[in-house]
Write a structure and sequence with these properties.
Number of strands of chain A: 14
Oligomer: homodimer
CATH superfamily of chain A: CofD-like domains
Shape of chain A: globular
Number of helices of chain A: 13
Largest interface: A-B, 34 and 34 residues
């Protein structure tokens, strides 16, 4: 599964309820990664790890359950950079990762260590071990991903998104092999423009999907013209795409063999099929476990 | 005051009880500094800061009072580097420092920000903004300072100490000015070999002390052949020095105008005076506030 954060994490979790997690591999976006307070933070990898380890905080929608905030409170008192809230439990992950990266380990290796330690059966592969940074040109100036997403709550006007470093990044051997060998490639219902596109822009990924199109299944992140969560709809509009499942279908043109769209968008099925792809209609909202499991089964079937 | 950690911190605190803290400047050892878990940690600067801010943990002898250990416990569970115990409150300091250093601030600037924020009146100046690393050649192999001190509890046989980077380090302008302009220069009762020597080896420091010798007062860290705390006595022996106040006097040869030694070593006063320096005899153990204040007054008189 080409994976962003929350949406991908939920679908991965649902897949694990239906098949052996050892059969599932996620190739994960690293465009949101940042260095803050000296620590390397990988929000999408961590969201998936925590969700699959059943440690995620469903109330907050991010971070860990049973979290405490001692360090951040002290950091705020010192006048430090405390806008990106790093919980005490969460910090341990970032300390671990930063130490191992300083030791010379790759992000792929560190991710394997963390997931193994936390009992995550799914294999998580950062798409690249190189630095990729999703940046936003906005009416507030140029923003890093987390400045845009967390500091400004994505409430700014975006004129363009740039995936800095993507073109020079090297698709990791592990991710390449996973993409080439998988029986099925799934594009998660993550934000196309800022979660999936940074994966597609790493040289090699788009080519593999074009080649393996018949095996590619995509789940639309848009339902009735709106994103369930996050700024996908607004970004589609601001960046000149149609704000609907059709807009996403066109964005992924040539890469997808089968689209899975929500029942509420059933009326669009014909228009999508007219573009030469298969369409499955089901409930794509993973509001409860039963729905998520149904979606997982459709993805697998 | 040329300062290491705990001993210097206590004498600085005592001085603040006697004179205006704004008149006191500490030039601080950075040879113990380390990068761990991605964070830059400055143990001597932090020990002094916390002690002067009255935040230090007297029971532990290091770190902060009211400390909690959530992050370290989680890091240990992840299999991370948890032998160097970083408390949750303490971590905020290291996150703050690491962020500011990444921003391009110097260690001197970061120290000024932290001390200002924590209400420390004494000016703390890292002797250099460059990297200096005190390393130990031991029967357990080559060890970094914290491996020697914390991981091995300084219970190894040391054949030599190397202050890596000292000769190339640049004495900071602020520290140089402080050393040149101070009415009195004090060598703290810190470990001569591993707390004070890394300061003296930064080019310029030794020369200033040689020049200003008449203004230099040193407090012996050795009483009746033993260190109050830490491995100073053992290191003196292993590195071929006499294990007594006389050994320390000879180690600082030419740099000190007045020695302050403990009453228990009064019998050594004549031998020290014979080396051409003044000697004051008093209680040098800062066991309680009254004793510490008495020592501070002798230092100032």
């Amino acid at each position: 599964m080409l994976s962003g954060g929350v949406g991908a994490a939920r679908l991965l979790r649902a897949l694990c309820d239906v098949i052996d997690p050892a059969q599932v591999v996620a190739v994960v976006n690293v465009g949101d990664d940042l260095v803050l307070n000296g620590l390397t933070i990988c929000p999408d990898l961590d969201t998936i790890t925590y969700t699959l380890a059943r440690m995620n905080n469903d109330d907050l929608g991010w971070g860990l359950r049973d979290e405490t905030w001692r360090v951040m409170d002290e950091l705020a008192a010192l006048g430090g950079e405390a806008w990106f809230r790093l919980g005490d439990r969460d910090l341990a992950t970032h300390l671990y990762r930063s130490q191992r990266l300083n030791d010379g380990a790759t992000k792929t290796e560190v991710t394997a260590e963390l997931t193994q330690r936390l009992g995550v059966g799914v294999r998580l592969l950062p798409v690249t071990n190189d630095q990729v940074a999703t940046e936003f040109v906005t009416d507030q100036g140029r923003l890093t991903f987390q400045e845009y997403f967390v500091r400004h709550h994505h409430d700014v006007v975006v004129s363009s998104v740039e995936i800095v470093g993507a073109e020079e990044a090297r698709l990791s051997d592990e991710a390449r092999r996973a993409l080439e060998d998988a029986d099925r490639l799934v594009i998660a219902p993550s934000n196309p423009l800022i979660s999936i596109d940074p994966i597609l822009r790493v040289p090699g990924v788009r080519e593999i999907l074009l080649e393996r199109r018949e095996h590619v299944v995509a789940v639309s992140p848009i339902i009735q013209g709106a994103a369930l969560k996050g700024p996908a709809d607004r970004l589609l509009r601001e960046l000149g795409h149609e704000v609907s499942t059709l807009g996403v279908v066109d964005f992924y043109e040539g890469l997808v063999g089968t689209w899975i769209i929500d029942e509420a968008d059933a009326a669009l099925a014909e228009a999508i099929r007219a573009r030469g792809v298969r369409v499955e209609v089901t409930t794509t909202i993973m509001a409860d476990r039963a729905n998520a499991e149904r979606l997982a089964k459709v993805v697998l079937s």
